[in-house]
Write a structure and sequence with these properties.
With about 220 residues, the chain is an alpha+beta fold. The protein contains eight helices and eight strands. The chain is flat, with a radius of gyration of 26 Å. The mean pLDDT is about 85.
Length: about 220
């Protein structure tokens, strides 16, 4: 039992480090070779766990080999456009200038029903509203609507929108996030005073709080039991 525990803990640690090194992308965003590597790594990790007679070193060496292979391929695709096209493939234009490209649909093995379904998921139930639809190398469908169907922006209305920036969390589950406060150029005293002004004398009452670029404070209190 102890052997299984130690092997499981070691494999989990190695897998966590390996996946962290390989990147942050979700399964749906993986390139084909990355997905294959992820499946192989999972299989290699499961085999030593289910069969304790298999040396743990065999699984670890195989996992590390695949990790090095993935990093090497990722580096090659980063530096070479030609290699990227061969390894990852190229995007396919399924709708061009409002017209379905039948040859590209056949080549990509993408049927009309799949296309319509993906367009609906992108909030385009009518193909007539689409100018371009591009099947990306990770399987995602990018949709560019016709000009008349695009959302109106402040630039279209000649309105100068103020810069909003990225709000930063300053309180999380009753705990002040000092690093984020420092990034905003604010102090804990300022935050505590703002919370008191909003009726929160105790920081433990606050579930979440964030500060926008113009120092506007958003507060969500904890649910009272």
């Amino acid at each position: 039992m102890l052997i299984v525990f130690v092997r499981s803990l070691l494999l989990y640690t190695v897998l966590a480090i390996t996946m962290r090194i390989m990147g942050k992308r979700q399964i749906g965003q993986l390139q084909p070779f990355e997905f294959v590597l992820a499946v192989l790594i999972a299989e290699l990790a499961g085999t030593p766990l289910s069969d304790t007679d298999i040396p743990l070193a065999n699984g670890l060496v195989a996992i590390l080999t695949l990790m090095i292979s993935q990093i090497t391929l990722a580096y090659i695709t980063l530096k070479s456009n030609k290699a990227r096209g061969i390894i990852c493939g190229t995007p396919s234009i399924l709708i061009e200038k409002g017209k379905i490209v039948e040859e590209e649909m056949k080549r990509s093995r993408y049927n009309i029903n799949d296309l319509i379904e993906q367009l609906r998921l992108k909030n385009f139930p009518n193909i007539a509203d689409v100018e371009f639809a591009i099947l990306e190398t990770d399987g995602q469908l990018s949709v560019i609507p016709k000009p008349a169907k695009r959302a109106v922006t402040t630039q279209d209305l000649n309105i100068n929108a103020e810069y909003e920036g990225l709000p930063l969390s300053v309180v999380l589950d009753g705990r002040i996030l000092k690093n984020d406060l420092k990034k905003l150029g604010l102090t804990q005293e300022w935050l505590i005073e703002q919370l008191r002004s909003a009726g929160y004398d105790d920081i433990s009452q606050v579930l979440f709080a964030s500060v926008s670029n113009n120092n506007q404070l958003f507060i969500q209190e904890k649910q009272k039991r």
